[in-house]
Amino acid sequence: MDYIIIVVSAIFINNILLAQFLGVCPFLGVSNKLSTSFGMTGAVMFVMTLATIVTYLINHYILSPYNIGFLQTISYILVIASLVQMVEIILKKVSPALFQALGVYLPLITTNCAILGVAILVIQKEYNLIESVVFAVSNAIGFGLALVLFAGIREHMDLAEIPAGIRGVPAALIVAGLLSLAFMGFTGIV
Amino acid sequence: MSQWKNFAKGFVKENPVFVLLLGLCPALGVTSTAINGMAMGLATLFVLLMSNMVVSLIKNFIPEKVRIPSFIVVIATFVTVVDLVMAGYAPAVHEQLGLFIPLIVVNCIVLGRAEAFASRKSFMSSMIDGLGMGLGFTFALTLLGSVREILGSLSIFGFKFMEGDGILVFILPPGAFIALGYLIALMNKFKKA
After folding, report:
1. Within a 13 Å sphere around the CA of A106, how many CA atoms are in the beta-carbon half?
2. Residues B26 and B107 sit within 8 Å (Cβ to Cβ)
């Protein structure tokens, strides 16, 4: 039951993009086309889950036993940056097809605050390892859901008549606001 | 480019939030009040200024291939400093900003300036660039925070100027997107004029 609550609240209620504003840069950057947003979602899910597991282990076996919690930010970002590099190298060797699909998005992910945000959030919420993994996966799904929805809307917006003053980024932000308003409807279901 | 131009470009012409669209996560996340926006802006200003200075000082000693990780370590160090200082001296604000303080480290604007500007230019220009960009960021966040606070709770910097409730949605997440959208549209208009 606890897991279901984590999943539902991460995907719908506290959607990482629309309610917590983590990962807005790639959200606006790669949401022009549906296909790229699927690629980005895959890459985020992969790295987010991996990064959360690794940072969780670092926190519990290195940072807290030695009481050096103040190194959290530095160690996490270094781990995530090197993890992304490593994933890139391994994918290139093991699965060139997957690398083709995700490759361009991987370097972008290092500076995606959603990854670091989730890694810090699971520590703040004091989840255990399994809960952390569930939390990371569902946040990635929530990110993907918002991204794909938004990309779908934006593809249609290209065809619409938008007043010159708000064409482009302003219109995209206002649409994101409306999408976020729609997601607020889920508040209170858990 | 004169140093004054270098300093002033961060406000309107190359404003990090309104024009470059960098660092949007904290810009949207913490600006439910003007004070929070300003506090976040100042925290980022400090990190941006210090990291730009340090990066421009050490740029000649860093091998080309590991420059990005080295920049990240420099930035993360100053973020940790800000985090601890704020937790010690302004616990209420620190509580409000929460997760977004450690997330300054992945704010694209900080790494972006280190890579695009400080790693190429002199110490003095980098310092001025960091100061200008940081103030531009602070200005943007304070403006967005003020607009949301005025519309959402009919107050400014915590000072209530009118009785009543305001438009609640501007305090909530959707309002952040909508207010920023309109501010950017307004900024575009000014830029053209």
Report:
1. 22
2. yes
Q: Distances in Å between the alpha carbon of B9 and those of A92, B20, B53?
A: 41, 12, 18
| ipTM for the complex shown | 0.83
CA distance A30 to chain B (A): 13
User: Could you give the number of structural domains in chain B?
Assistant: 1
CB hemisphere CA count around A14 (13 angstroms): 16
A73 with B24: Cβ contact below 8 A: no
The residue to which tokens 């606070």 are assigned: B149
In-domain check, residue A106: yes
- pTM of the model as a whole: 0.86
For chain A, what is the domain count?
1
pLDDT means over runs of 10, chain B (193 residues): 78 81 84 89 92 90 83 90 91 86 85 83 88 92 92 83 82 90 87 68
Residue range of the domain that includes A30: 7-184
Can you name the residues that pair with A150 across neighbouring β-strands? none
pLDDT in tens, A171-188: 889 999 999 998 888 887
Q: How close, in Å, is residue A173 to chain B by CA atoms?
A: 5
Q: How far apart are the first and last CA of chain A?
A: 11
Query: Domain for residue A190, yes or no?
Result: no
Is A77 within the bounds of a domain? yes
Cα–Cα distance list, A155 to A127, B5, B177 (Å):
38, 39, 19
In a domain, A29, yes or no: yes
Residue B116's domain comprises 3-192
CB contact under 8 A, B181 and A21: no
